[in-house]
Amino acid sequence: MGLDARVPCRCWVDGLTTEPPIDRSLLGYEEGYVYAVKLADDDIDEFWNRADLVGYWSQTCCPHPGLEYCREWVGNWPSVRLFTTYVNLCDDGQFTVLRDIMPSVNGGEVSPVVSAAALAECEAFIEAVTGKSAYFLVDADTGKELYQHIPVYSGFPYGVPDTSGFDMDGVFVVEDQVEVFRAARARQQYQMNPAGDGWVMTLTSDDGSTYARVTRHRSEDRTWEVRCRRLRAEDIPCINALKRLFRACVEINMPVCWC
Ligand SMILES: [Zn+2]
Fold it and tell me: Residue 236 and residue 86: Cα distance in Å, rounded?
């Protein structure tokens, strides 16, 4: 799950492919895909046969398998949200194109003219993001950053309301929408539940306050800590894939298609 994007090649629109395996009147073209059209009185097996033929043909009909000049995995949805969060964080009118073109669902396209404008904004955007502060949930035992705080996700790493999360004031636990535990740093430990059904997970803060619950799944013992640091260019998700897509789009004058 996430966001992919592709820039179709020009071979079909410029008439540079090999001859298709079925009559051209039975072909459609949309967002860079050549496909077999389904007719009203079509036999379903015949239709799928034609669709397969066109599918195989499009893998080898030009130098670009699948008629794709460029394809990129932009990122999972939390990464895409984080990218748009950074854009909104920095935007005081100079990143309007980047702000407007990022999709929140799969589908849609960006024209070459708009891609050229987006590409021009990218470098200034990287400079604007660098040096701003961000919060990370860290495994304090190893120093590894596990999640970055995404403000629009209300402290939940994947944006899905859960029983625990973190924000700039630390890790927290909520039960029935009431915060029952909070700590800037908390040790998470598991012990067998004396009742024999699963585990008791305990969180202990540096000041000694605790939270415990029974769970069926045991995770690792670790120390959670929220740390703040300045952002670096390599923290910006999606940006390199986006730049490659915008560049390819401008280069061959074909749209970027989100998929
Ligand atoms: Zn091609």
Answer: 8
